[in-house]
Request: fold
Amino acid sequence: MSFRSIEQLLRRNSKIKISQSIANGIHDQKEEQSVQTLRESLLASNQLPEKFDDHHVLLRFLRMRGFNIIKAKEMFLNMLKWREDCAVDTIAKDFKFEEFDALKRCYPHGFHGVDRFGRPLYIERIGSVDLSKLMQVTSIDRYIKYHISEQEKTLSLRYPACSLAAKKHISSTTAILDVKGLGMNNFSKAAREMFIEIQKIDSNYYPETLHQLYIINAGSGFRALWKVLKAFMEARTLKKIQVLGTNYLSTVLEAVEPSNLPEFLGGTCTCSATGGCLLQDKGPWTDAGIIRASKEPSARHVDPTCGRKRTLGMLLLEDNQVANQMSGNTHQKQANEQISGKIQELEDCAAQTKETLETLICKQKELAIHIEQLRKLVRDDVLPEKNTNIQTLK
Reply:
């Protein structure tokens, strides 16, 4: 937390508890400075909609661009333009994907629980896709709109619900891609076009929402295809991808509990009562209690970094009214400890500064003495020389 953040908290006359503001405003100092710089730049040109005036949102764009403020701002503005051109808000609100059930039958995919950290777990059995049927039940354009609507749902519902359930900020997804049987021969032109467009959307407009991708059952055919696909992906994204063969289970289980891993991937979940693991969208976001909590008025806080209201899903979610974990007194105690720690830090800094100043003053006095001594030597040497010259002239 920066000194400026503490100062803003002390000045704010708000009904929001100071402990909540401090808890929600604690970020890495360097990251916070970068976010604040980007935010001020966007506000100066009136290019920061309230919906995106959020520490974690801006941080995603900064991370994707290596904390280069200019590049991050350009990427952010491109995202806003894309959302306007494609009417993304309208898609998120009104788009109806009537062919959903038919799509699931020929393209098994979906969210299924969470990883060990609490992130949403997304699974695709892309090697089992019947592409000819897929193109019969939908079009590339409609599938892309469906993909966008799912991304929006993840941001607005899945991440906030997972954050509540895990009692910590969640803003990325763990994914498993089963490519058994997939190779160059069955990766058609339509499939390539769809992959390239979706990759572009995810990288450019939903950056840093992938935590880890496990590509499993990768045979020789897929590995040849992978060499081609990598050319369309960001270097930062590629670092988050592990390509595994058939002996993938031990690696995947390091990230996912067996109970959250479908049986067909080596886990213990069958979801037989609901028609299969990839059909029910299983996760904290389907818990009625969590959904109600995320919509309560108390689930909106003021973030000292941005100074505006933010949704619960974008916070650390430590408020006692929402997570029911800590009492108000505990929050106040933590707040006092935070402020006391900052005061002590500043007092130590002031003491060190005073000591440094006293040392510099002593040095200044010593230098003044040395300068005067040198000047005296010069005068003593010059005067005899002048007297000698005068005697010679006489």
Remarks:
- Strands lie at 109-114, 120-124, 173-178, 210-216, 241-243, 300-302, 309-311.
- Residues 92-291 form a domain with the Phosphatidylinositol Transfer Protein Sec14p fold (CATH 3.40.525.10).
